[in-house]
Design brief:
This protein has 362 residues and is an alpha/beta fold. The protein has one domain: Alpha/Beta hydrolase fold, catalytic domain (Rossmann fold, 3-Layer(aba) Sandwich). 45% of the residues lie in helices and 14% in strands. Helix 4 links the parallel strand 3 and strand 4. Helix 4 crosses helix 16. The longest helix is centred in the N-terminal third of the chain and has 20 residues.
Length: 362
Amino acid sequence: MRLLIAIIFIIQIGSIDSYAHAKENIIPKAWKNGIHKKVRLKEHTNIKYPLVHLNRPGAIPVILLHGFGGNVHNWMDLGSALYNEGYDVWGFTWTINKERNIDAAGAKTVKEIAKYVFKRTGQKSFIIGHSLGGMVARIYALGLIKGSDGKYIISKEAQRDNARYVKGSVVISSPNGIFTEDISSYLKIFDNMPNSYLPGSVDLSHVINAGVAETDTLWVKLLNLNLYVLRIPFVSDFITFVFNMKMHDFDDYSLAKLARYGYQPVPVSYKDDLQRMSDQIGSSSGDIVYADVFLKEKRPFPFAYITGSEDPLAPTESLIQEARAHGETFLSLRQAGHIDPLFGKMGNQSVRFILNFLKEQK
């Protein structure tokens, strides 16, 4: 077995040049050319949020919110595609504030992001959220606020205010609290996610700013071999869970890019929230059941939905139910797992659907 692995490893090394021709860019050109920096969303704070801005002055801004355990670089393919179609793209790693839980992220962090982009563009944005990013986008739209008694409530005034900054939203593989099977076993995978960076992972923004992106893609190619042959324990198990492996070939670097560039340590507050939500998705104070308000509460701006048929966390049936409850449009991707809609062929389908939705709201 070791000899077989060594032979495959040598073949992989020897074929790096051919892979470079097979894939024009592992890191899309637009993403490499973007502005990579950390920003304060408001004054009088020491917290700086990683931002990737694909700057297109005067164009309609699109805000990208990643999912649980992810970061802004989960969007390198989809975000670059939207930029190439004429949009001003703003991607944030929004989970770094350890003092906030999921409720506070939706009520405060997303609002700070929306106001930050509005202040710099003078235009309303579209928010595209994957998984947990789609949940906090909904929480923002619903105008969730924390009352003086510590309980969360839905505020119509906050809804109207939030609609001043956002024009519409697309949620991708984003749970709404309606499950077709027991998800406790899946939540354990998230609970076991490391509180530090994974071995072999790096900050892609740092790599790009240092001017070594082309060199670093060598590690992506080698990691690609590890994922398929050596099976790095945690990374392999997690990726098998979130991807439908049938949709990815050996020379498709989506898996390796996610492992190399796509992980962000998860604050304990988010993990605690996720465990609490194993029975029911709702506010941390227990006063609001998101499965109810996501379906019943009218939103101040339109939504659209993308779902995968092989995704147990955001079942197709549940998102279609939510879309129909609000008379909104949806895309169901056959054989897609939880994160497949962001990459490869399915990512292309997602882009086409998103573009249609954005153009309809103009």
